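Budget justification aside, the reviewers requested a transparent look at the raw inputs and outputs of the sequence design task funded under Objective 1. We therefore reproduce one unedited record. The lines immediately below are the structure tokens for a 380-residue chain.
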């Protein structure tokens, strides 16, 4: 399934708030055991993947990287709750991060701690769209929570005090931070390492980080703040895809090394010929002739082709029906590899040609199948 936006959360209450926005959610298991759900934000909304990363910047970074690699999204939204750092920010308000501070960086010297700031800014276009949505106010019915656009501080501990050493540190060195939480720095770093993939952090205010967190949590502010953040995130995700999707896809086409599912096209005229061209190579590459192949060679290339087929389906280059039909035909091919007779080889070739017909619009898949068909013809 092609994905427009990945939405990540840290807590189950945050996950549930986003999940309520999904139409037709379906489970997608990552090979390493991470459970994602895919769906749409409304019947005509963008395609999203929802994942739970748990608490802390480190697991958030790892699982954000995993989601980016698996789904190649146009953007990542990190949605959940945070504590307010300014008195003018009310419980239930939403904060969209203009930048994320990793506030625990520093050096300890004889005369005290010195800050070593690290920060990531929201991409310009995503920031412009977020602020337009804030101004227009069309993301939620009245009474609509107030939305603030400003920095967020992300550390490794829960802050629930105005007077602790950590609170004083944040106030002194990150004085413009509107809210504080524990995962945004990890997600922002993952986006930075993936060719500056747009990352938007959206946090509903569930407490004031002032010693009253237990009381606020008991009054169900986590659930309410999560719902407000999820509502803004859903509207922003659809706006991002509508306004930015085409330009980002064009950028990927101009720079074919971005993301996965890359395809290449060369045009040869006159007496020129394209001998071989490779983007990302998975499996074996065989060139030349004169050497017969066997069932093991074909099986290896079929395994490679299955990987390519899955990627094409995931990236939206192959629709669901064609993917399902091609997968079923491949199962038939695998079952026929052990028949060495000419008749068996003929049936194998017919099935492979059916698969080629199903995926012929994808140049890389058609090329790979042509190589497999040649191997079958040379089988001994």
């Amino acid at each position: 399934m092609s994905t427009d936006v990945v939405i990540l959360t840290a807590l189950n209450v945050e996950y549930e708030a986003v999940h309520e926005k999904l139409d037709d959610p379906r489970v997608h298991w990552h090979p390493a055991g991470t459970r994602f759900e895919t769906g749409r934000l409304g019947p005509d909304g963008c395609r999203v993947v929802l994942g739970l990363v748990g608490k802390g910047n480190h697991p958030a970074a790892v699982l954000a990287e995993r989601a980016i690699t698996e789904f190649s999204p146009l953007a990542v939204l990190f949605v959940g709750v945070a504590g307010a750092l300014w008195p003018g920010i009310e419980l239930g308000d939403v904060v969209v991060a203009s930048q994320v501070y990793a506030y625990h960086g520093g050096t300890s010297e004889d005369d005290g701690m010195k800050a070593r700031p690290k920060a990531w800014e929201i991409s310009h276009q995503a920031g412009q769209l977020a602020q337009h949505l804030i101004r227009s106010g069309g993301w939620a019915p009245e009474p609509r929570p107030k939305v603030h656009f400003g920095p967020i501080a992300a550390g490794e501990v829960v802050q629930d005090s105005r007077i602790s050493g950590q609170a004083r540190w944040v106030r002194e060195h990150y004085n413009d931070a509107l809210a504080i939480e524990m995962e945004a720095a990890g997600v922002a770093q993952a986006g930075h390492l993936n060719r500056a993939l747009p990352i938007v952090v959206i946090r509903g205010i569930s407490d004031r980080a002032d010693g009253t967190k237990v009381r606020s949590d008991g009054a169900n502010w986590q659930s309410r703040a999560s719902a407000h953040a999820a509502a803004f995130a859903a509207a922003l995700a659809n706006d991002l895809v509508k306004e930015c999707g085409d330009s980002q896809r064009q950028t990927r086409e101009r720079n074919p090394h971005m993301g996965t599912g890359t395809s290449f096209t060369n045009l040869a005229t006159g007496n020129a010929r394209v001998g071989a061209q490779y983007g990302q190579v998975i499996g074996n590459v065989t060139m030349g002739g004169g050497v017969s192949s066997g069932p093991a060679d074909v099986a290896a290339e079929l395994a490679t082709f299955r990987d390519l087929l899955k990627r094409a389906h995931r990236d939206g280059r192959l629709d669901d029906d064609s993917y399902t039909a091609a997968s079923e035909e491949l199962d038939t091919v695998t079952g026929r590899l052990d028949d060495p007779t000419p008749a068996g080889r003929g049936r194998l070739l017919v099935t492979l040609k059916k698969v080629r017909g199903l995926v012929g619009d994808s140049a890389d898949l058609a090329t790979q199948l042509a190589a497999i068909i040649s191997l079958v013809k040379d089988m001994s």
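The CA atoms of residues 84 and 179 lie 4 Å apart. Residues 221-254 form the longest helix (34 residues). Computational costs for records of this kind are itemized in the attached budget.
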